[in-house]
Amino acid sequence: MSFQNFRKIAGSYLFVAPAMLLFCTFSLYPFLKVFQLSVTDWDGISSSMHYIGLENFKDLLTDNPVFWGSMKNAFYVTFLALTVQNFLALFLALLCDRDIRGGNVYRVIFYLPPVLSGIVVGLIWNWIYDGNYGLLNHFLQFIGLGDLQRAWLSDAKTALYAVSVIHMWKGFGWGFVILLAGLQSIPRELYEAATVDGANTWTVFKNVTFPLMIPVFVLVSILTILGTMQIFDIIIATTGGGPGYHTEVPITRIVAMMIGSSKFGYACAMGVTFGLILLAISMVQIRVSKMMKQV
Amino acid sequence: MELNYDLARKNAVSFFVHCFLVLVSVACLFPLWWAFSSSLKTQQTVFNDLSLFPKDPQWSNYLFAWTKADFSSYFLNSLLYTVIVVIGVVLIASMAAYAFSRLNFWGKNFLFLLLISTMMIPIPGSFIALYVLLNKLHLVDTRLGYILPQINGGLALGIFLLKTFFDDLPKEIEDSAAIDGCGRFRTYWYIALPLARPAIAVLAIFNILAVWNEYLLAMLVLSSKSLMPLQRGLMVFQGAHITQYPLLMAGIVITVLPVLAVYLMLQKHIIKGITAGAVKG
Lengths: 295, 281
Hints:
heterodimer; A: mainly alpha; MetI-like fold; globular; B: mainly alpha
């Protein structure tokens, strides 16, 4: 190989070297390391680390109701996000798809909550839900429903709903923007043709809009599930997982296991398990969507 | 008559549609305005004064939050982290994306897939191992330890976005540059990078928002107050002064204003960015 050639090849690698270096250090290594740590009893500090096989996983699966409770809570919020939040997003997108005046203004406003941080949103809503001076309680008093007043985030009965509302408030604008873009990519001629054929609004939606939107629906629901299951910032800024374990979610449990209990190995096992569950959910969804396309 | 009836019906429908949309808009904006108006009340009035436009706005709350409650330091930290991470992501991702799009080398496709796969696979526990790694490298509680993982975090999307952009770019300009004796690095720097400005804008905005709003890593990595960004600072302030609502709200407004400014200035790029990714992918 001539020197010229060598220089050329080495030069090519120099272009990707910084990216690869960062990637291997901060993505690939931690990714592999999590698996390695998950089969140890490491506490994060001591120099000794014992291989304990699948002990962590066994304990997690059979003897950790708090973790599975947190999973159930996350599923609950996810279910609400998938149904209430995404239906609201779709409904709004359908309304804004009709070339209404000021459509862009609405879009800018609806996408405002998604660009804020979970911390900011959580702290603002804390103040709205506050048991003594919260806006919501003032409002209930005002409309004569004072009996319903409560500390919404520290009442075991309402905490999870309250957190879900915050999450959906923050998230619906994001679904709206993607769904609206999907709707606007549908050629208008299809609608015109359907209307000429005498189809009403519902049949147009069922036979034209819906089938063409399936890929977008799948994308939005996968991202909703992955995003909501990993909810953390809003929880930490509002309830911190309480009262009791009523709003614990998997990430708060993993952090608690790591920082609170110094069980790094166990926390990694939780992360691996949780990651596999998320992966399985996305695979099922992709499979289902492929089946729907064939029908 | 028939026409009139149709028109009236259309107007009525449009009226209700707007009513509903305005209602949802108010629901979006009201909590933010409430936070803002609370930030202008005093510690005494904030609990009972429900006015949306406080009669005697306490702008001094902002001065206090900025000087006495460390929000100036949090703000400057956030600014520093955001600027450095965005510059890092744009430079490193664009170089790699250019190579993946234009140059030929062994293992190219494999490396590209490897990088992109990190976007697809959720690894919720990886922050534990990341923390362990930073600890080994003595990067815990340092600025670098907070910056480097975030540059890495922006790479996958950046390389994907910019490679797609470079792939669609006609090669002729670069070829003529090469004939004129431009080396590959100079071609990338002087020809390809300036042409990629629209894609870089989208990439920059996404990273600005991501870094400015980041919390988990800041919580794990940074424990010195002097290094903390705004999101972390807000939580620290809330933990220490739980009832000082006007000051907390002032801190929130300080945190939100830059995001709001960036968003309103560049919302077209943001919405184009999300929708392009979504509809193509």
